[in-house]
Please model this.
Amino acid sequence: MITVRIASADEYARVGELTVAAYRALAVDHLFGGYDQRILDTATRAREADVLVAVLDGRVVGAVTYVGDSSSEWSEWTEPGEAQFRLLAVDPAAHGQGAGAALVRTCMERAAAAGSTIVIHTTPWMKIAQAMYERFGFVRRPDRDVQYEVWKEDEDLDLAAEWAGRAFLAYSWSATD
Model:
């Protein structure tokens, strides 16, 4: 059975490596601009947000960062009263065993308890994640998409050509909807 809890400090390296590996497996590079190093620094992230892990048979098989405070450094493109989760990753060896669903469900429970709406952003290449969000009742929110011109502030980012003109896609969920 999968359990979800706050990551302990001795699990931070595993969380970072697991998450970077999941992002490396995507069809288009998502680790530009030093993002891989930022992800690997789980200890810093855990000071600003809740790093949750999915544990199966005593092993961390998934992780997500839950951001309950829109003023957190780890909150992106949210407004006051909105929560967010980011960096959802599951070990490929544990795919299909419910780790990703358990992590999303836990984030939804936290947001519901706080009376917050969840607003998340994903990329066009994260189709499996998008399908899972829709199964959980997340609604596509094109009005909250973050357009290329907005998110690509750094002109020197070494982006794959596929990123040109691509927006981050928004989804939202509320316990009251």
User: Anything to note?
Assistant: The chain is about 30% helix and 25% strand.
